[in-house]
From TrEMBL:
It holds the Pfam family Trypsin. InterPro entries: CLIP_Serine_Protease, Peptidase_S1_PA, Peptidase_S1_PA_chymotrypsin, Peptidase_S1A, Trypsin_dom, TRYPSIN_HIS, TRYPSIN_SER. Residues 31-286 form the Peptidase S1 domain. It comes from the Bacteria. One of its GO terms (molecular function) is serine-type endopeptidase activity. Residues 1-30 form the signal peptide. One of its GO terms (biological process) is proteolysis. Keywords: Disulfide bond, Hydrolase, Protease, Serine protease, Signal. This is Trypsin. Gene3D superfamilies: Trypsin-like serine proteases.
């Protein structure tokens, strides 16, 4: 759940730590390339929560039932208090973000605080077999946010059937485009200083990217997140964690990890078309 380097894979997690009432992230992080989503995926939400280490973090999530959000386990593990939820496509073009600060960060948000600020709220749950990135064969980076009230006017997304990704021949994976959606901001040249591609906090908006597949394991889909790839438009990075990966309009995975600090390489996506994910998710659905 924390923003940290994974020793196992030499990767960085894709959640973003938020400091204070703004979005000064440590490190700041972003989607690489991609397209402003507008209302293309209105069922994709930003979630914001406090953790037991005192930090405040943001991730992405998807409405899969009128009162259930699908996200990543590292976006729910260790969360305290209520989870802030918003489906706004554009959060803020520039600082401040408009997010409230909890009166007691050690206990997280209260439902009353979030309601007073005009945000939906929910309670997070973590897959009981989540390995905290220690076991590639049992990754299980799947989380749920149970909303306190059903969402009206937004059609939930559908999770793909069991084994959907296994239907793709290995020779066709590189030619298969996956759509990732989330609330990371773009990596671009800084407005001042060195003109190297730099992860930028603002604008904070929902984006989508097209990514060609690269590798498939029983738990993980890997995809190429370089915006210069001739087959894709970019990749995911911090803040996109837990966001959906779509194939043919259904969710096949959620964003889990990346390999580089500038997110211009491979990304890892937890499969949700497998029984160990779906059996647990179904326990939250009516």
């Amino acid at each position: 759940m924390r923003t940290r380097v994974l020793a196992l894979l030499s990767t960085a997690l894709l959640s973003t730590v938020l400091l204070g009432s703004g979005l000064a992230a440590s490190p700041v992080s972003a989607s690489t390339g991609g397209t402003p989503d507008g209302e293309a995926h209105p069922n994709v939400a930003l979630i914001l929560y406090y953790a037991d280490d005192g930090g405040r973090y943001r991730c992405s999530a998807t409405l899969i039932d009128e009162d259930v959000l699908l996200t990543a386990a590292h976006c729910t593990d260790g969360a305290v208090g209520s989870v802030l939820v918003t489906f706004k496509s554009v959060i803020a073009e520039k600082a401040p973000s408009g997010f409230p600060t909890a009166a007691n960060p050690s206990k997280g948000y209260t439902d009353a605080e979030l309601a007073a600020a005009g945000f939906a709220s929910g309670t997070s749950s973590t897959h009981p077999a989540y390995s905290d990135f220690t076991d590639p064969d049992n990754w299980n980076d799947v989380g749920i946010v149970q909303l306190d009230a059903p969402v009206a006017g937004i059609t939930p997304a559908t999770i793909a059937g069991l084994g959907r990704l296994d239907q793709i021949a290995s020779s066709q994976l590189r030619k298969t485009l996956f759509t990732a959606v989330g609330y990371g901001t773009e990596v671009r040249q800084s407005d001042t200083g060195p003109q190297n591609p730099t992860p930028m906090t603002y604008p904070l908006i929902r984006r989508n990217v097209q990514m060609p597949g690269q590798k498939l394991t029983p738990q993980i889909l890997q995809a190429n997140g370089n915006e210069n790839d001739p087959f894709g438009t970019g990749g995911t990075c911090f803040g996109d964690s837990g966001g959906p990966v779509f194939l043919d309009g259904t969710i096949v995975a959620v964003t889990s990890y990346g390999y580089t600090s500038n997110c211009r390489y491979l990304g890892g996506y937890q499969r949700v078309d497998i029984a160990v994910s779906q059996d647990w998710i179904k326990t939250f659905l009516d």
